[in-house]
Description:
The chain is an alpha/beta fold and 396 residues long. It has two domains: 9-211 and 332-392, Rossmann fold (3-Layer(aba) Sandwich); 228-317, formyl-coa transferase, domain 3, CATH 3.30.1540.10. Helix content is 39%, strand content 14%. A hairpin with a 5-residue loop joins strand 7 and strand 8 (245-248). The model has no long low-confidence stretch (mean pLDDT 92).
Amino acid sequence: MHRPLEGIRILEWGTFYAAPGGSAILTDLGAEVIKIEQRGTGDPFRHGNKSDLEVAGDSNVLFVGANRGKKSITINMSLPEGKQIVYNLAGKCDVFVTNLRRSTIARMGMDYATMAKINPMIIYAGVTAYGTRGPDADHGGFDPQGQARSGMMFSGNPDEPKMKLPGIVDHSTAVMVSYQIVIALLMRERFGIGQEVDVSLLGTASYLQYLDNLHMLLTGEDTAHHQREAIRALVNHYRCQDGQWLMLRIFEDHWAAVCEIIGHAELIADPRCETREARAAHRPELIAIFKKAFAARPRDEWLRMLLEKHLVACAVNTPRQSFEDPQMVENEYVVHSPRPGKVTVRIPGFPIHFSRAKVERHSIAPRLGQHTDVVLKELGGYSDVEIAHFKEAKVV
């Protein structure tokens, strides 16, 4: 089977997660990604939190996730010869990806205008904290800044800002990076044009809240915050007898059916429940009844009864439980991946399936500079003598 992006070559000059994570997704789809790292030190992300997934002692699990399946080359880009090597490689690549600050990119001569002169058909993908325009366009930022500035930290918690899942904006931005690159490649195929595309942590974080923001912008009303007693009884989560939780998302038309299942058929004719409006006015009382009812049986028993009536309900999994969920396993949302010289490990799977294409499963990232010689020779066209000179001059 084909890999969707086989034959596509990407040159990456990025650090930490958002941009490298985006090109890592494209390695899963078959793209060749060449990662430029600073000679001697490499991506600062290599030296963060250590874990059992260390690679040759110089990488951590987060670096592995952001750089799986890539080739690493080290170049001293502050030297003219180093810059020329990058220009040479860029002329033979389809995509250039970076998330360095715009001022740094311009100072180093790695901006789109420069790259487009070398390779007019190149797709130049830039990732920023806050977008390419506005007073803070050159400010740096990470996942927490995306959550904070987009309003996400107050979403669902009106009294005190609260972080959502750690890394959610970083990884969502990485997905958007891969998305924008594929769109630009399609446009190049259809219209014969290269171009610059950009995405930001702030823009991604705001777009993740599309429905809430749409409601707020069109109605002028704040989105209802998820406080259990303020949400409908049929759209809520409940703890069961075995300590496990379940989540309901059931339409009001099925009120009577749910009442019968939980053993409270008397609620059907109760004046507090005769209409949707009446039920809304008595949410705390009804939720209290539901809490007590669901606490009387184990979760699996409740799920069986609800699903037999084709009502929408599911388990509230812990992250560890989700990895054993048969739907996660059968759909390969968590997969086994071999590591050279070590036992097979489980990693997150690619969530899209193709009937006539395959997706690779990478579980390791390259060692610092692991592919410098081979890339310079095979792609750059440099001789062994020239490569030896680069090393002696501390260019690579």
